Amino acid sequence: MTPPGPPQCKAGIVMQAAIILGLCLLTPRVISSLANSTITIESGNLEGQPANDLGIKAFLGIPYAAPPVGKLRWSAPQPVSALSGVRNATTFGASCYSAAPTYPQHGPVSEDCLFANVWTGALFAIEARPVMVWFHGGGFQFGSSSVPLYNGSKLAEHGVIVVSFNYRLGVFGFLGLEELDQQGTPSGNYGLQDQLAALLWVKKNIRAFGGDPENVTVFGQSAGAHSIGILIASPLATGLFHKAILESGAYWDSEHGSLRTFSEARAQGAAFAKQLGAPSLTQLRTLTAESVNHAGSWNASTDPGLTAFAPSIDGYVVPTFPAQTFDVGKSQKVPLLAGFNAAEGVAFLPRIVPHVPTARYAQSAKTLFGVTTPFFLSLYPGDTQAQANLSALDLLGDLVIREQTFETIDRQANINRQDVYAYYYTYTSAYSPIAVHTAEINYVFGNLIPSPSLGPTGTPTAADVDLSMTMLAYWTNFAKTGSPNSASLPFWPKYSLPSDAFLELGNNVTVIPNPFRARFQFLSSLRKNGVLPSSWRHDFTDN
């Protein structure tokens, strides 16, 4: 079948739209490559999936960096080689190795896993649609862009281009070693460097999919949100994105304090090499991927920030603690949409502070909070066992997710003077019975399918669909203009003081004040130069 040619641009015809004028300047190859499922990017030609019934095409499993294998294991991501012929981009590429063996894998797994995926409804390159780049979660230990929940088709129906990608996880993504530091750039954050490489790939290639490289919104959940918060604080990310959405995460803080220091990461790496009996980098690189991954596996009952390979201060991607950067107004000057869920702590329940009986809860409080314990107990009471149960869960959710997410909201608005929109997700239904960590993702993507975090649930109802359409509109509006608002939606005010306004995304969508300001202010007051107490490394004992 012969591809359609460009529109006819006859002299004397008055063009009614700028897009038509632009089309006249394009070559037939560029126009037809977007009208069909074959396009040309910097590295070569791709054949994607045909358009679905609503005109959305998917290009899957696109290499955005060279395979990090052999001598490139534990190296900064390198440029991708030129593609030979036309690459089949109709299926996802391999997922990166998971450090969490109990979590399900999606498709094949390989060290060769640095792939991106694009969903687009554009017909012509000059459309310059807003771009949304998804960062998946998983505690930096598991996860993949091929998870069905992350299918970007529904978001793309709202006029944006959606990109997702894999990044190295666990020991492959976050090993810090003195010998690795001698390769060029400091080690410890290869997974974050992969994320930067993916964003650079978007900047160079997204026009081919009809996207605008000057209107890129990053959005992510959990470790994906932590990643974005870290990158907002990183000078290496300057100019790679223009707006950010944080869903439940920001600094990679936890109940054990702030993220790992440079020296802590090196000590962890040295112990790992000794454990494997491979004292040199050459020996480490000759080990099979399976043996390395098995030795670096993580138990989900423990804090990955303390017991697994995860982001650290490397002096390169992460020059200092992200909270310090936000506190002094040196974070990236990008508008922000961010928030957290009502039942965040449930996902981390094995890590809850000892609290049974109530006397043990009081002792835990005294160990962690010292002279401030009376004030802590006024905010997180434990006079009865029911109170202690709830307060211990609230504290866990605040320390792992909520407080740091609020700090990014507050600092980006009031110190960095950016437009910020804050939300509190509380929605429940038979389909989504508790507002746990991750519960909002189904609604953001418009994929109301079974979710591992929700377990066996009921069938989505009209109310579930309505909330999803509302959130899809808010998220894509923000990506388009920097504001989530439109005439058809409940008004979402900017976050600022003294109004302290949040939008509750619940069974009723309504404006509320910050639901936990006093708790957040207390926890924030414990920071010294943005850093949570180092004593929490050993004082916070998991239940």
Automatic annotation (TrEMBL):
What EC number(s) would the UniProt record show?
Answer: 3.1.1.-
Instruction: Enumerate the GO terms in the molecular function aspect.
Output: cholinesterase activity
Active-site feature positions: 222 (acyl-ester intermediate), 344 (charge relay system), 437 (charge relay system)
All copies of domain Carboxylesterase type B, residue ranges: 37-520
Keyword Hydrolase appears in the UniProt entry: yes
Q: Recite the UniProt keywords alphabetically.
A: Hydrolase
Any Pfam family the entry gives:
COesterase
Matching PANTHER family: CARBOXYLESTERASE
Q: Which family does it belong to?
A: Belongs to the type-B carboxylesterase/lipase family.
Record-given protein name: Carboxylic ester hydrolase
